[in-house]
Design a protein that fits this description.
The chain is an alpha+beta fold. Helix content is about 40%, strand content about 10%. It has a domain of about 240 residues. The structure holds 2-acetamido-2-deoxy-beta-D-glucopyranose (6 copies).
Amino acid sequence: MWSVPKVLFFTVVAATNMTIVHMLDFCQKADSECQSQDISPSALQPRAQILNSRWNASVLSLIQNLNHFRVSSEKLRGAFPIDEVQGNAVRTVKNCIFSESSPTPLKGRLRLAAVSKDVLEGLLDLDMSVTQSEEFLLYTSGGRCLPGSQPLAHRYGGHQFGYWAGQLGDGRAHLLGQYTNRKGDTWELQLKGSGKTPYSRSGDGRAVVRSSLREFLGSEAMHFLGVPTSRAASLVVSDEPVLRDQFYDGNVKTERGAVVLRIAKSWFRIGSLEILSRSGELDLLRKLLNFVIEEHFPSIQSKDSDKYLVFYSRVVNDTAHLMAQWASVGFAHGVCNTDNFSLLSITIDYGPFGFMESYNPGFVPNTSDDEGRYSVGAQASVGLFNLDKLLDALRPLLTAGQQLAAETVLKGYVDIYKTRIHHLFKAKLGLLGDDVEDDYIIALLLQVMEDTQADFTMTFRQLSEASAQQLHKHNFTQAWALEDLSSHGHFADWLSTYLQRLSRQSHDKDVERRGRMKGVNPRYVLRNWMAESAIREAEMNNFSEVVLLHRILSSPFITQTSAEEAGYAARPPRWAQGLKVSCSS
Ligand SMILES: *[C@@H]1O[C@H](CO)[C@@H](O)[C@H](O)[C@H]1NC(C)=O
Ligand SMILES: *[C@@H]1O[C@H](CO)[C@@H](O)[C@H](O)[C@H]1NC(C)=O
Ligand SMILES: *[C@@H]1O[C@H](CO)[C@@H](O)[C@H](O)[C@H]1NC(C)=O
Ligand SMILES: *[C@@H]1O[C@H](CO)[C@@H](O)[C@H](O)[C@H]1NC(C)=O
Ligand SMILES: *[C@@H]1O[C@H](CO)[C@@H](O)[C@H](O)[C@H]1NC(C)=O
Ligand SMILES: *[C@@H]1O[C@H](CO)[C@@H](O)[C@H](O)[C@H]1NC(C)=O
């Protein structure tokens, strides 16, 4: 047999040689609650009761009048001091979490390019009819303030490309407020591209059509792939001219401004804590941590003297899981700085991201990232780096013993990641139970994919769609990715090992295997050329392709006629070769 490649897929390169200690060992000692789910039924019960008395779901219809849609920032304003200085003058801000800042309305005609029904109806209780009004365009682009809204810009810092970058903050985003929907979930609404704030540094506070469209489609696609992420509610484009040097090559072009209304349970980042810790604002650091724990980690007891440690172990665990999920769909974030990493371990800040097409752990979506620091295969290690920075931020609030325990927790990251990625790839291959050969089967397939530059998404999808009989016969007439793989000298070996492994799964019918695999291996991802094609039409105010893509990517596991006609599961078109991601945003 061919030897297992030494470099396993997406392995984590630790800074020091690590002893693997599973965090669960620690958790059991520290806190019996540690392993329980945050949203246990008992935790939800009191909230559900309050809701029943307030809302009667059977009579409540969706909100049809936007004047009845109220957001609030009272909770955030009550919890934290607000910057005493007003206005958007760029400045160094101290002793606060937020500054007051109002969106700057976009100039020129506004057009609604896309809207997510799933977000509007399902999360914001809004009837789709509201999107017909001129008001909706104003509310979702910063032209008018939603009832109750007192917009804020968040102060944070971060490590960018490995180095402490000092104060960053929401440079072109405005937090409009929180909305608690009838399910009892609270969402934070944020506009991106809505103008300058005290944190704009040298930026103009705007976002252009292409990057906004990519964020809208990318975050929605990730959600429907089952990856924790912020969501996008709407995308409004304007005629306001915005100057951008698209490839940082001195070629400045006039583009148009756009605004995305995006929502998340929380927009706090690792950098939100880092800046407080770095500037010695420890009371505020404690306040912010307590708030995040109380709001988002309800199973952690506020009186627990180890609560920051338990919180840290949660973030370590959840981030390891998120990194594995990114890898399992070939998602490369592109800017994994600590200021772009959520404390809730959801995917945020879609910039020069990309879905890997030809399998290549060195795939980098940001064409200016020459070192490949944030390549798809490096993300697991970058996650570890970022969590180490989070620990640094927490240190002033931890005892010496807790710091040691936290370091041990961090060492467990590698193990959590490996276990999760192993599970995810086993599921992608339809493997049940455990078999000593599983690691070998996964690693060899990836090696063959890398050597043949086979398409990542379609390899797994076509293995899901082909019957065992077709695979036995090497019948790849309708499977272009497998056809590419079959040129490899070791592919036949791999396939027979794989088929033997499948045949040892007694009680597993081939049709069940295929069904299972089709449920985890998407047929459609947002390939760069698909986004680019939609962007070209959108630049001419034709949004039909955005709408089509959004619909298709909302059911990525289901074969759809319109998607097949558009060639979304076919070999990428010739014109797409050599396409670059436009990086400035
Ligand atoms: C909710 O409304 C329905 C229909 O009007 C009514 O039958 C039900 O008793 C109400 N439930 C509560 C908890 O008020
Ligand atoms: C780790 O994270 C995963 C995914 O977020 C979650 O399902 C699991 O319960 C977590 N485990 C612990 C010990 O918190
Ligand atoms: C990451 O955070 C920095 C600092 O706030 C911001 O300038 C940048 O736009 C963010 N990246 C993305 C892709 O949003
Ligand atoms: C892409 O990478 C370069 C080089 O590291 C960096 O300067 C630039 O900010 C990155 N672009 C984005 C949009 O993050
Ligand atoms: C190969 O598979 C296709 C379906 O993908 C089927 O239509 C065709 O008959 C098969 N060819 C052979 C030689 O089995
Ligand atoms: C809009 O874009 C779609 C999809 O690319 C295309 O089929 C259609 O012809 C375009 N409409 C106009 C008016 O250009």
